[in-house]
Amino acid sequence: MLASDEIAKRLREVRERIAQAAKRSARPPDAIRLVLASKTQPPDAIRAAYLAGARDFGENYVQEAASKRAELADLSEATWHFIGHLQSNKTRLAVRIFDIIQTLDTARLADAIARARPSPPMRVLIEVNVGGEASKSGIAADDVESLIAATRDRVEIAGLMTIPPPSESAAAARRYFAELRMLRERLAARSGLALSELSMGMTEDFEVAIEEGATLVRVGRAVFGERPK
Ligand SMILES: *Cc1c(COP(=O)(O)O)cnc(C)c1O
Q1: What pLDDT sits at residue 223?
Q2: Which atom belonging to ligand 1 lies closest to the Cα atom of 227?
């Protein structure tokens, strides 16, 4: 892992870039929350970021997150986001250790989540596949409205999330981010839900995502360096 002061320095740089991107798009910088994607990073890397002011962490693997959280139980102000693919048999543990599940993409998974955590309902984002064929995960944009209708009574749907297909440049990702923003506007109007969160943008393209309306950016390598295998 990188030295703690290097993590702190990189965190400051990313925050500054977030502030600049917010300014360019006439958005208040505090409308954007930085979620540090900490998968495969050791607990000490997370602790270093926390001590430097980070509060939101995103993990992809339930078991890994559970053992890290046990080691980091003293980080009382941390918010934990699940950003990986959730298997139904991990749902019970997931609803215990995460504050929000960003990757809901089937009614079946919503059922499992609601059974594991009937009340208060689990806070979730719907993961949308805005890249069509090229994206591996998420529900098709056309199917999100019916997923909302089928699950809104059982989970708290706070907004949308996407992982666009890999593109050669941040500029190429812009249209996917814009697509998610417009989908959110349509669905908020039609469902009457606020759907206030838009989770999009990673190390390579978070500034473009902010310009397109991201409220949550998920950044790993820009802060932690390359991931240990
Ligand atoms: C790993 C991961 C990220 C962060 O990726 P970086 O390129 O390291 O910034 C963001 N979102 C998801 C869903 C991830 O799995």
Answers
A1: 98
A2: 8
